[in-house]
Specification:
About 45% of the residues lie in helices and about 20% in strands. It has about 200 residues and is an alpha/beta fold.
């Protein structure tokens, strides 16, 4: 792992989440302009056509945002090392994937990483936690958000910061996630992007 490259970005990520616990979930290029003018410093770019990806990444970088590209939902990008090299070449800061191998490769390149996991039952949870333990991403995106209250102890034990995602629709949902150990949430609800941790009731 290229730790010298990653360290400043890790600090930037932690500082961002300290005051802005809501990360923007962006589906398509139409939401990117609104994200870059919003207070939230972190965004996940999904379903961006390959032809628009370089310009979209540049827009987020120019706006001083921390953008994670969802490799799994970028049409035409693929899941091989060449995809990561391409993302690095266009200036991407981080990547999101459900695939352990992609997370490990991206970490080796010094990119920020977020591993997405869907928890549907205890068996699925066990496999997901084992994968996270091996890949050691910077962040875990846990879906759906409401399951966090049931798996808080296990998630905390892994030691990787967690963002709750899926059905985050109100400030109360954000507070609930923080109360159960998440460092933040991901949502496409633009009304929540400006929430600051200091403005939320005690969590």
């Amino acid at each position: 792992m290229n730790s010298r490259h990653k360290a400043p970005l890790d600090q930037r990520l932690l500082a961002a989440l300290a005051e802005h616990p809501v990360a923007a979930s962006l589906v398509g290029v139409e939401m990117v302009e609104r994200f870059t003018s919003s207070p939230t410093p972190i965004g996940i770019l999904a379903s961006i056509p390959l032809g628009d990806l370089a310009a979209t990444v540049k827009r987020t970088v120019d706006a001083r945002k921390i953008g994670f590209v969802n490799i799994d939902s970028t049409p035409g990008l693929g899941h091989d090392p060449g995809a990561l090299a391409y993302l690095q070449g266009i200036g991407a800061v981080g990547v999101v994937s459900t695939r352990q191998a992609m997370i490990e490769r991206a970490t080796g390149l010094g990119l920020l990483t977020m591993q997405k996991v869907f928890v549907t039952d205890r068996s699925n949870l066990r496999r997901s936690l084992q994968s996270i333990t091996r890949s050691r991403p910077d962040l875990v995106q846990l879906m759906p958000a409401m399951v966090l209250r049931h798996v808080e102890r296990q998630v905390r034990a892994v030691g990787v910061p967690c963002l709750a995602a899926g059905f985050v629709q109100s400030a109360d949902d954000v507070v609930e996630a923080l109360r159960h150990g998440a460092v933040g949430v991901c949502t496409s609800d633009e009304e929540l992007w400006g929430l600051r941790r200091s403005a939320l009731r005690a969590s």
